[in-house]
Amino acid sequence: MSSPPAFRTAIVPAAGLGTRFLPTTKAVPKELLPVVDTPGIELVASEAAAAGAERLVIVTSPDKQAVTEYFRPQPELERTLEERGKKDLLDKVRRGPALIEAETAVQDRALGLGHAVGCAEPKLTDADDAVAVLLPDDLVLPRGVLGRMAEVRAKHGGSVLCAFEVPPQQTSSYGVFEVDDTDEDDVKRVRGMVEKPAPEEAPSSLAAAGRYLLDRQVFDALKRIEPGAGGELQLTDAVALLISEGHPVHTVVHRGGRHDLGNPGGFLKAAVDFALEDPEYGPDLRDWLVERMSRS
Ligand code: UTP
């Protein structure tokens, strides 16, 4: 008999202001910026679907409805492409809506990641003992870490986070975990988290990544935390509250790559990385990059 899925619902918070990507984000949600030709939100939706999610709850702001529109079928466009025999393009257009059932929850004001996740709660059903949260501006490669996180929840219960090893000089850019070892090398028990510590104050070299497998209790914790800097409700504060109450929280140390799509520098690296692997654009881009680098 197979065990029930670790989660059925994946929450994708996409209601932030995207200030690091201004001025583009005045009009275009950063979640829709294309990595080669596919927006980040589709890449995380396909990761969630591959990990077994049946539903995606996209948290958007009232002026970012285009993010959920992206997952709606476009019958007119599909008809036109069909008439023109554009089979490849038709497949691309249909891919997003076919991936997963996408619903919207609205966050009226950008009051923080914790607040955004809390806005998804009314969309949950009794079957949702746990939810996955995927940040759409964080690409975790190779995909599949949610599967390992589900195994860890099955073994230890509670909530499971995702960590990356970072060099000491980079700890001040991340939330850094304070951990104890377990009997598995890639799994640590989380004691706490320090936001953006200087290298000498960092409790470990394990930085948080934008993948969470959260027990439903997190929604109760989110109602009990106080807003922090900028009036924002932080998801990590809710997790810290749960830890203080004895809720088991572990982190999977993911050995792989990562792209931060939330700022132009990280986004460009992701676009180049993906484009170099693309059979259509890769070879020409590689030649051009070599020639361009020779000119510096
Ligand atoms: P970020 O901090 O990366 O996004 O939040 P941001 O706030 O849009 O970006 P900057 O810092 O202004 O450039 C991580 C994810 O959480 C969502 C964002 O949309 C992003 O996908 N988020 C953040 C919300 O949905 N609501 C919020 O209030 C804050």
TrEMBL record:
Residues 10-273 form the Nucleotidyl transferase domain. GO terms for molecular function: UTP:glucose-1-phosphate uridylyltransferase activity. Its EC number is 2.7.7.9. It comes from the Bacteria. InterPro entries: GalU_uridylyltTrfase_bac/arc (IPR005771), NTP_transferase_dom (IPR005835), Nucleotide-diphossugar_trans (IPR029044). It catalyses: alpha-D-glucose 1-phosphate + UTP + H(+) = UDP-alpha-D-glucose + diphosphate. The keyword Mitochondrion does not apply. Keywords: Nucleotidyltransferase, Transferase. Belongs to the UDPGP type 2 family. This is UTP--glucose-1-phosphate uridylyltransferase. The lineage of its organism: Bacteria, Bacillati, Actinomycetota, Actinomycetes, Pseudonocardiales.
